[in-house]
Fold:
Amino acid sequence: MKKKTVISLIVILFVFPIVVTAQKAKREDLPGKYREFLDLTQYIILDEERDVFLQLTSDRERDIFIDSFWKQRDPTPGTDRNEYQEEHMRRFKYANEYLGRGTSREGWRTDRGRIYIILGEPASKENFEGKIGLYPVEVWYYYGGGRKGLPPHFAMVFFKRGGFGEYVLYDPVADGPTSLLVGGREMDFTDYETAYNTIRQMAPTLSLVILSVIPGDIPYNFSPSPENNIIMAEIFESPKEDINPTYATNFMNYKGLVTTEYMTNYIESVTDVATIKDPQLGLNFVHFSIVPQSLSVDYYEPNDQYFCNFELNVSLRKGEEIIFQYSKNYPYYFSPEDLDKVRSNGVSIEDSFPIVEGSYELTALLKNSVGKEFSILERNVDVKSDSGLPQVIGPFIGYKFQEYERGIHIPYKILDQKLVLDPSKSFSSNDDIAFLFMVSNLERALWENGKIEFLVNGRKENNAVKKSYSIMLKGYSYRDSISINQSIAAGELTPDYYEAVIRLMDSDGNIIDSKSEEFVISSSTVIGHPISFSKGFPLSNSFLYYYMLASQNRKLGRFEEAESLYSQAYKMNPDFKNGVLEYTSFLVEAGKYEKAMEMMEIFKDEGKFRFQYYLLKGKALMGLEKYKDAIDNLLEGNKIYNSDTGLLNSLGFCYYKIGQSKNALDALKASLKLNPKQENVKNLIDEIEGKD
Structure:
């Protein structure tokens, strides 16, 4: 029997500000029909919509809101039927009737139920239950169709972890192929190639989907790419595309809502965000840490282990536009011997990603499937252009340093030193305080004669502790950017609020730049710091970072910067086909048709990329006004996959340009049937029919 233990892990801090928010109903206090509505719409409702719904005070308001909610999603407004609502309710009912079998949970709450509700019936399924050497595995295959951001063809893999319980969604990065193998725990988790070959011998078709959600896509070095997490985020967000939440935020005169409570089980957290320019890559990264104030854990009796399962969803916005998003899973298992430590200290989930210059809104949603708990990090991030002048970056404050090899990127690491931090920045008298900072754009003359003045100033009005340290820059090997680590014993400081000030000074004592950060020395003799949990990324795959930055610039409309980054990423690894495909797609979007035609030829004989080859070539030829050649290629692509709205729209436009109105209307109306909310397509149809 599986026993469940819910343990409250409280992170004790000095003072928390009292935040007054609009009164919200709790889900459990709502009448049954409205709780059922929240369950029914769990995977499609926007955060803003849920916030407004929970603030409504009468059943009449809730009924009006529900009616408005479905109308926003009606593909054929003005008719008696709402096909979207009917299909969604059919999927929800199917999930409950068939996908909850063998589990104590309702079917819609399971991973298979979630995917079925979001994506519908798969195009095909494969079942590997009873295969010797494999835990039970099930694969669902889908076509992306006209849905935004989804690949033309992809697979969802479910498996019974350890051979027990319900089917859960498999993550190539977090779970890895060894999790599918009986006895896989005894294998090297990072030896993806061996695990892949082992599974390939047992089940060849399964091996095609264990390293990537794109069937047959074998990643570079057999190491699953973070691109999988990006695709999964797009899948989970796909039901929310094109839904404007304005109707909800203005509903019943509620305006300017603060959307920090995403679910009933919202857990406050302590967070930290830092922007650091990596001295090896020369790229800016956002680093962040989230420590939930309470944490539910479960017990897995067969392995005598406690665990919690985190899912991190990150989005970076510029106004209303999402310029970057991804998700990661962090399954965390620990032995009963570590239970007291976890109870006392809590867990810090850390991550980082590259970012282009600009001002953005960062949102990180951290979910723990055990207890269905959620925490939110929301922060404005400002990445300024490099002035070229000497400057201080930091300081960043933690409680110790850990040494890592330079070839691994990990949050809060500079060169070979990772700062282990507690976002509360609170220390006991028995702690060490670790300070990490950088001096960038360092000129040789300043390096030879300049220094760092490191000040620690207490805030008490009387008898405040003040300490100062001088660090000569010449004590470090000269380079454009140097990293400095400094540790002091907290016992040298009395309990107080402190400010650490880093001053960069020239030989005459002039302050060139100054930065500061605050921390607290507690009167407690012991403070438990959270257990840091993060994932390393090999810099041998750093070309992926350049693709991420290129994509961000692309969404911001900075095509020149995007092209430069795509070009650099391509040169770093010209064999990364998915990246080359994205680069080629960008060139078509940017109007660089001739260059796109050259790039795409590498896909001509690649079977799994043939659809994209014909689609992009057709669009490039259309841009060059070679409409007949474009039609030939688009028709070839349509033979492979005939439900892509982008292809059908391009085909219809090309037919229109050569005067074949009937063929143009056939293609455009087929596209409109797939996605009725295409105003530009409707307008073109009206224009063609008007001329005829």
